[in-house]
Structures are given as structure tokens and as C-alpha cells.
């Protein structure tokens, strides 16, 4: 339970009048900030007055540091990355999204699964204070590799870096997730909410996340696609393929979910990229 904010009659009327006059929600939030309102509280107030779900409102992108690096979106029909040919079979403009074919070979997929299997644990998420927590929205098991932990992981990191023109040092450790029938990952954003109290801690090293690459290590018999509800798009989980998408903090179009596996199992490797170097590579 969280307490409801009392909204004065004047403020309520001002928000309604301003939006009726054709000003967008971002502009209303900006004006409220200029008048000294706390951005987090403003979002809740505007959501309540306009009867909008809070998650659909843009998070304030105000941050102390200048924006960092942005990825280069792979172009169709094919990109060569570190000597490896990757097909681009579907492109979306907003958010920038690509379905990538053959980012991993069948053998690389099998090898990643074999390396990860003995190290699986119930997958965690980062809470609003920046702490790792068990999350009922995410019922899969997972593990992380450290940067360049084994030659295969290093090779994949170099491939993703070349593909998106973002140095491997901007990557978080490769995460492996394993879903069984019924397991899913409910709709969420991969960017960190600038209005959450833990934001500064989570982004102190590396800054904001800028893109995700979800690589499918097997083909579930049924279900397990990655859905983008704002686009009405579901990407089929197929071994060796991936979905890449890029975003800014607060970008609601990048909402996505791992749909429940209906039959068989699902294995993925996820690479999240940051706007600034996240870790120094452990090897030269
Ligand atoms: O399981 C999926 O398809 C999506 C995974 C995901 O959203 C993530 O790892 O952030
Ligand atoms: Fe995600």
C-alpha cells in the first residue's frame, strides 16, 4: 500500500486545462518541475488526474551526467560483425528494434547452455533501491557470466560490440535464463527509472542502459516468444536468432515480456548495454 497524494483543486484544474489546451504530458511535467514540484510526485499526480497508468508516463530524463554513447542500429539485409554474418529480418523504427538471424551458431548455443546449466539459480531483478531481489514477475532460473569469462563469452561480446558499434566494456555480464512450461517474464522495461530512489546507485557505474540483445539458445516447442505490447509484435524464440532493441530512459515503447513457455523449455542469453563503460575488461 502506498499513500495517496492530496492534489489541490487548483493543481488538478491546471493539469486538465493545460492538457486540454494541447500540451503533452512531458510538457506538463516539465512545467511542474520548473515550479518546484518533485518529478516523482508530479508523475503520480499527473497519472492520477489524467487517469493514466503510471508506467505509461515518461520518466524524467533529467540526470546529472551528459548522455553517453548510443548504439548503431544494424541495417538490413545483413551485417558482418567480427567476421560473422548476421541477417536482419525485421526492423521497427520506434523503438529501434531488429530481429537478428544467426547471431549465434547452433554449436555456440549448445555450449552456452552446457556452461550455464550447473550454475542456474532463481532469476533476480533489481528493485527500486538498487538491490537484487527474487521477483514473482520473473519465475525463470538464471546465471551471469563475468565479462570475457571464457573464450566463447568473449567472442560473443566482441561480436555484439562490432554489430552495434558499442565497446564490449559497456556491456553487463552475459545473462542466461532458463524457462520451463508456465514460466514467463511479465511486461517490463530494461531501462532504469530515473524517478526511482535507487537510480543514482544503479547507474553510478556505466550510466543508463541503452539497449538489449536477447539471444535465443533453443527453439521452445510452443510459446516463449518475446512480446512488445506497444507494437503488437511478438518475436518468435528460435535457436541462434535474437531480438535487439534500443531505448532512452523513460521510453515506454520498449515495454516487453517473455511470454509463458507452453511446451518444452526456453533458454536465452541477454546482453544489456550501458551508455558508458561498465567494467574494465578483465583481459586485454
Ligand atoms: O525472455 C524473454 O524473451 C525476454 C527476456 C527479457 O526481457 C530480459 O532478459 O530482459
Ligand atoms: Fe527485458
UniProtKB/TrEMBL annotation:
The keyword Oxidoreductase applies. One of its GO terms (molecular function) is procollagen-proline 4-dioxygenase activity. The keyword Oxidoreductase applies. It comes from the Bacteria. Keywords: Dioxygenase, Iron, Metal-binding, Oxidoreductase, Vitamin C. Transmembrane segments: none annotated. It holds the Pfam family 2OG-FeII_Oxy_3. Residues 170-275 form the Fe2OG dioxygenase domain. Its cofactor is L-ascorbate. PANTHER family: PROLYL 4-HYDROXYLASE ALPHA SUBUNIT, TRANSMEMBRANE PROLYL 4-HYDROXYLASE. This is Proline dioxygenase. It comes from Rhodanobacter thiooxydans.
Amino acid at each position: 500500500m502506498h499513500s495517496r497524494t492530496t492534489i489541490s483543486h487548483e493543481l488538478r484544474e491546471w493539469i486538465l486545462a493545460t492538457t486540454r489546451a494541447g500540451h503533452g504530458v512531458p510538457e506538463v511535467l516539465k512545467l511542474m518541475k520548473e515550479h518546484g514540484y518533485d518529478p516523482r510526485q508530479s508523475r503520480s499526480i499527473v497519472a492520477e488526474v489524467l487517469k493514466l497508468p503510471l508506467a505509461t508516463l515518461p520518466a524524467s530524463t533529467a540526470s546529472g551526467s551528459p548522455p553517453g554513447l548510443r548504439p548503431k542500429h544494424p541495417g538490413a539485409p545483413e551485417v558482418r560483425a567480427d567476421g560473422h554474418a548476421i541477417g536482419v529480418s525485421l526492423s521497427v523504427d520506434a523503438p529501434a528494434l531488429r530481429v537478428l538471424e544467426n547471431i549465434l551458431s547452433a554449436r555456440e548455443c549448445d555450449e552456452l547452455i552446457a556452461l550455464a546449466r550447473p550454475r542456474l539459480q532463481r532469476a533476480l531483478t533489481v528493485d527500486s533501491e538498487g538491490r537484487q531481489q527474487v521477483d514473482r514477475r520473473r519465475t525463470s532460473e538464471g546465471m551471469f557470466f563475468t565479462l570475457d569469462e571464457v573464450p566463447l563469452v568473449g567472442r560473443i561480446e566482441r561480436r555484439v560490440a562490432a554489430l552495434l558499434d558499442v565497446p564490449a566494456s559497456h556491456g553487463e555480464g552475459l545473462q542466461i535464463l532458463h524457462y520451463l512450461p508456465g514460466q514467463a517474464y511479465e511486461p517490463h522495461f530494461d531501462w532504469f527509472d530515473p524517478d526511482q530512489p535507487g537510480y543514482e546507485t544503479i547507474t553510478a557505474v556505466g550510466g543508463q542502459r541503452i539497449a538489449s540483445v536477447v539471444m535465443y539458445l533453443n527453439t521452445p516447442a510452443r510459446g516463449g516468444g518475446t512480446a512488445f505490447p506497444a507494437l503488437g509484435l511478438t518475436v518468435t524464440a528460435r535457436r541462434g536468432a535474437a531480438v535487439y532493441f534500443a531505448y532512452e530512459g523513460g521510453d515506454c515503447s520498449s515495454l516487453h515480456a517473455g511470454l509463458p513457455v507452453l511446451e518444452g523449455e526456453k533458454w536465452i542469453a541477454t546482453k544489456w548495454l550501458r551508455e558508458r563503460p561498465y567494467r574494465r575488461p578483465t583481459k586485454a
